[in-house]
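User: Some background: our group keeps a shared notebook of sequences we're curious about, and every so often someone picks one and asks for a predicted structure to add to the entry. Today it's my turn. The entry only has the sequence so far, pasted here. Could you supply the structure so I can complete it?
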Amino acid sequence: MNKTDEDLSLHFYQHLCNIIGSEDVVKTRRKIFCAIDCIAQHPGFVGISSGSKAEGLDLEGSDYDQMFLYAFMRVYESMLNVSISTNTIPLLMDISDKTPGFAKLQLSKSKIYRRFPIIYQFCDIEEGIVNFSSKLFRELYLQDGMIIHGPCHSTRDLTYDSVQCFRCNEWITPAHNWIYRSRSSWPDNKLVTAVVKHGVLFVPIGCKGSLNENLEWRISFSMAEKQLIHSFSHTQLCYALMKIILKDTVEEKHGGLICSYFLKTIMLWLCEETSPSQWNPRNIITCFRNCLRRLIYCVEHNTCLHYFIPENNLFKDRFTGFQQKSLLNTLHDINSSWWTYVFHTATFRNYRTEQIDPLSSSLTASAISSLSYTDMAFDTLFIWNMKQTITHLTNINDKELSAYLISLQWMQLPNNNNLITDRNKSFYKQYKKSLHYFKAGLFCNIISAWSSLASLFYKHKRFHECIDVLNYCLSKCTPDKNKLHSDNDLSEQTIFRKMKDAIGLLSTCKHLLIESVQFHAPFCLLPVELTPVLKLFDEVFLMFPPVVYLQILLFYAYII
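Assistant: Of course. Here's the predicted structure to add to the notebook entry:
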């Protein structure tokens, strides 16, 4: 590669970093979702973030994927591995149908099932063999407003996916060759060992068109894939550029023929086959072109081998002859005029639109939107053991993020505890605790913390203090504040990044961000005058725009 090409690659690399985030931004996003996983633990299940956001990418239109691993059931390859003293329900993996990448899960004749008779409602009995039905389990606990999308329960706008799954702690036999196969130098032995240690998951969906589709479970390597992608160099995230091309160009013409998982699979194969030294900013254009050519090759030969179980061809029966020819024409067009296609994608066009002033500093993506998902982790369902949660948070390898999340947790507590109304020792003890909680909450967001404190004063009829806090809080609700949500624009992201670089995460969140005022069931801090609103919304939490809520509360505090 000549110097001109290298310089062009470096400029393009910087441009791409502005859009998908710098190396530091991507690492911060990953830390946030790892922290969410630390919090999302319960005696009955463990929450695992997966998909693009957990991998550190926050592209426009990407959803949030969360897997819920049930701890009371565990998959085994052989019943010989089941301990007699186990408290988990053993499920036996059956791959006799020879559908690569899928398995049936059978219930053994263990007496432990007698303690959980409800399990049999998800079973299909055939010739004395009890199979655990993926279809019946997938339909379990489908909430209002959610739809079944593949193995997932998804919101109707497909911005959030959750999937219930089981785990096999051992690395299964069909994927054993992955451990020992020849590779350039990535992944190294240390990373392979770490991946194998986490085992595999089973998600409730069968092979499309299979005779046993409703009984089969797909073997998922989500945990392994996340670990591998977290080890990528930043240049290897040209994978993100492939996803942009897919979403903004290929999907418009060909729908869902090519999904992002196929791109991830191709990327993993390429990384294994090439030296890590080739993946550097000076070579990013060549790296991207190689990814694109490999995709074309796979479509031409109707072959995309699963990264961990190569016997599973992901492109088997994927396209008709016409679809394959049409898709190839599009991919060849992109390959021959890739500059044109890349810079005409909606993602790159939107970036140019937001970058109105060419003389101003470049807009750059940041991790601000990822912080919006931390509220989900503090749902009361997860905060079952305060001591354990605090321990997990203090062990996060980022002191500022750890302090932010601990502060956020303390601020949630008064919302989730019923207030004692009798003016006795317990009343004053709880009142003092609540004051300490809000004081701790000031480290994550001053407007939310002061709003909650004003609500506490109002509930306890301390109206003068309530009015003082409300007036102070309203003075902080200025137009320069950034609202925290899952889709902050690039100008908001740039301001957040610059402030974070200058004064740190805690001070930035404290003084820059503004969030909706939230009330969770049992709504102990919600003013009694606003309780009729609960009849209008059958929800476990309510949200108000901060200025609206503060003005309403100020009005009530003055007239009483």
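Suggested note for the entry: The chain has three domains: 1-39+233-364, 42-231, 368-559. Residues 96 and 524 are 55 Å apart (CA to CA).
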